[in-house]
Amino acid sequence: MFLLRLIILLALVLALLWLVKRLFSGDPEPEQLESGKSENMRQCKYCGVHVPESSVISVDDQHYCCQEHADLDQH
What we know:
This protein is of the alpha+beta class. The protein is 41% helix and 16% strand.
């Protein structure tokens, strides 16, 4: 009987520690995450890095991660 009480007490303490850690960790709650707002990624033709479509530099239907790579690839 003593062992059962000890196990239950340990489980409660662990649950409480987990809850306190979650509350003060600064991690966003799942409800706070932007759901459904994904963005397509494009691969830079010059270096191969993937960048969000909104940040890509497009030149002649080629995609680049920055203006420098677009300029370097044109030469």
